[in-house]
Specification:
The complex is a heterodimer. Chain A is of the alpha/beta class. Chain A has 6 helices and 11 strands. Chain A starts with a helix and ends with a strand. The chains are: A alpha/beta, B alpha+beta.
């Protein structure tokens, strides 16, 4: 069994014990002090993966600073339903993704409705990150670099309405075709972040889908196309 | 003072067809300044549906 799989099994067992206890409060500190290593745990890959994490037991005690390879699958299929950013505020904690390099399936299949800021400037992989989080309506901000490799990152995000980009969306293109409910402000945030490739002779594609494209004026579309981006 | 006219180049797929450049797909495409209509071709809706199903299957088993 791979280490990641072992961690997943341990995580499942912990969550079941913690969540089923009648004296839940008494176990809270003991459980989270151990699970988060008193706030020093660096590797959260697979840490909150699975439906056994729910609104009763998913209450991290310490802020999370993800290590470079400790982001992947961190919340995959997590059963907590609701606003992750609000939960963090309620718990008095933060999620720091700024060291993250490998982001594969970090929020794949979650039931979160809102996610806060994700700093993906160092990401060398951003694969299926939010894929099939069907209830996700808001991603407060994604901080990106030209090299942030969006790759099917937003597949299946049918409910997404609000997203903001900080930084430069570059050579890997971007596909939000599955998110027809995006607000105009979100679309303009994306267009505003596109790197200008006009003089490079190369073309990159921003796929938004016909419904989103219809929300933009010709002048707004021109901002993107004049920067060398084809809109699909 | 100089004045230039900047135009939007729009491709629309025929009925029952979808435009693709091999990576992106759409019924309506607005070409970037460096892009050419020659880079785009039409496939049928059925072919596009097959591609989508394949993508979903890949995502599910990855």
């Amino acid at each position: 069994m791979k280490i990641a799989e072992k961690l997943s099994v341990i995580c499942e067992n912990f969550a079941q014990i913690y969540g089923s206890s009648e004296s839940e409060d008494a176990y809270y500190d003991t459980f989270w002090d151990a699970y988060q290593d008193g706030g020093k745990r660096p590797d959260y890959a697979y840490a909150f993966r699975g439906a056994y994490w729910n609104n009763a037991n998913f209450k991290p005690k310490y802020s999370i600073v993800f290590a470079s390879y400790g982001v992947s699958n961190a919340f995959e299929n997590c059963g907590y339903e609701g606003d992750l950013a609000a939960l963090c505020n309620q718990q008095g904690i933060t999620l720091d993704f700024s060291n993250g390099v490998e982001f594969s399936r970090t929020f794949y299949g979650t039931k979160f409705t809102r996610i806060g800021t994700i700093d993906a400037r160092k990401a060398t992989r951003f694969y299926y990150v939010f894929c099939y989080s069907y209830g996700l309506k808001t991603i407060d901000k994604i901080v990106v670099a030209e090299t942030t490799p969006f790759e099917k990152s937003f597949q299946g995000l049918k409910a997404l309405e609000e997203i903001r980009f900080d930084g430069v969306i570059g050579q890997n293109g971007l596909n939000l075709n599955d998110s027809p409910l995006l607000s105009h402000e979100s679309l303009m945030s994306i267009i505003g972040a596109l790197k200008d490739y006009a003089g490079s002779g190369t073309t990159y594609t921003l796929t938004l889908g016909a419904t989103n494209l219809a929300k933009l004026t010709d002048a707004e579309k021109l901002i993107a196309t004049q920067k060398g981006w084809t809109l699909a | 003072m100089t004045m230039t006219t900047v135009e939007l180049k729009k491709l629309e797929a025929s009925d029952g067809m979808v435009l693709t450049n091999g990576e992106a797909y759409g019924k309506v495409i607005y070409l970037g300044v460096n892009d050419s209509p020659d880079n785009w071709r039409e496939i049928t809706d059925a072919e596009y549906a097959e591609i989508l199903a394949s993508e979903e299957a890949k995502c599910a088993r990855t």
